[in-house]
Amino acid sequence: MTTANALSTPALRPAPGRSAPARRLQAVDAPAVRRRPRVAYAVVALTGALLIGGAQMVLSILTTQGSYEVSTLTQQQREVTWQRQILADDVAGLSSPQYLAANAAALGMVIDESPSYLRLSDASVLGAGEAAAATSSIDAIGRGAVPNELIADTPLITAPDATIAGVPVVTPEVSGDGVANTPPALTDGLPTPATH
Question: Annotated region Disordered: where (predicted)?
Fold first, then answer.
């Protein structure tokens, strides 16, 4: 052991002739009086906890409300998609060849058995170049045509009372005395304009 180490050890006594090291001991003052915790710190801590809890509740409510809005918007989108599909089916039916042929027939148009073509380069007519017959030998919407259920009940544009299947049969109204209120019969048929 070194002498410096030996001097600091309390069990050892200093050698004779040497004085003991001076100890720095001093009396302790009276203990400091404890201060009571301030009420402001408690109020701040409690207010902070309440604010955090309130913010969590508000965020939870907003998230729940957002999920209900998403559900409602998803349902509306599904309904709009169904309506769009229904409208697309309606457009497909109205642009079908059967519907166009029915409207053309209601206008008085006929199908020519030998069509004529106009060549634009020299303005010459290719084909018979004659007018079509008053009646068509081809029935575009007759029994041989494939039925189109998309337009079965759709009224024709040219004849709103008729459908592709024809003019609906109207039952005559019967008056109180049992006599049917019908227009007079036409023996020569209905008058139609010449359209060809």
Answer: 1-25, 175-196
One-letter identity of residue 20? A
d(CA 140, CA 98): 7
Q: What is the pTM of this model?
A: 0.43
Q: What's the token pair of residue 61?
A: 């409510």
pLDDT in tens, 77-131: 999 999 999 899 888 888 888 888 888 877 878 777 777 888 899 988 888 777 7
Structure tokens at 1: 């052991």
| 110 contacts 135 by C-beta, under 8 angstroms | yes
Domain ranges of the chain: 39-90, 96-124+136-164
Instruction: Report CA-CA distances (Å) from 2 to 7, 8, 9, 21, 22.
Output: 9, 10, 11, 16, 19
Give me the residues paired with residue 166 across strands: 163
Provide the residue type at 23 as one letter.
R
Phi, psi of 66, rounded to the nearest 5 degrees: -65, -40
